[in-house]
Amino acid sequence: MITEHEPQTALDTRFSSPDATATAWPEGRAGLAAAELYWLSTVRRDGRPHVTPLIAVWLDGALCFCTGPDEQKARNLAHDPRCAITTGAGVLREGLDLVVEGAAEPVRDDATLRRIAAAYVAKYGEEWTFQVRDGAFHHEGHEALVFRVAPATAFGFRKGEYGQTRWRF
């Protein structure tokens, strides 16, 4: 189990309403944990961006997700682990949009993978049950690699009374 560190929190007044306040990290973390859908941005070998939706779980201070070894995002992360994961309400005037920037680290330890698999079932239901063996998830004859992205920097974009918060870890 990894200990989660409290980040430095700062409101960017250049991009915030005059009376906005910084969003506290516990609220940002709760939003990351509760979201159902995320968008992963990676970089292809030729430098072009690749963005794809996925599901993920927050565990031990990081977002964890899985992908097939032959999928574009897995190939991109193999050559450059830097990525961004975004989530939010998808509406203009309310809510909190969140961005996590970091490096995707492969998770191969079966004990940790079992904890991540249990978190998938708890969050998304029994249809997301994975078998764990040989350092990967397995489901209906398919293998999935598992990655964790601990935030290096994260951003919260509060809408309505607009405020942009940066969390540095």
TrEMBL record:
State the residue spans of region: Disordered.
1-22
Keywords, in A-Z order: Oxidoreductase
Residue stretches of biased makeup (Polar residues): 10-20
Example GO molecular function term? coenzyme F420 binding
Query: Does the keyword field hold Oxidoreductase?
Result: yes
For this record, an example GO cellular component is: cytosol
SUPFAM superfamilies, alphabetized: FMN-binding split barrel
Residue stretches making up the Pyridoxamine 5'-phosphate oxidase N-terminal domain: 26-152
Reading the lineage from the top rank, the first entry is Bacteria
The answer to keyword Nucleotide-binding applying to this record is no
Query: What single Pfam family name could you report for this chain, choosing any that match?
Result: PNPOx_N
Q: Which InterPro entries match?
A: F420H2_bilvrd_red/Heme_oxyg (IPR052019), Pyridox_Oxase_N (IPR011576), Split_barrel_FMN-bd (IPR012349)
Q: What is this protein called?
A: Pyridoxamine 5'-phosphate oxidase
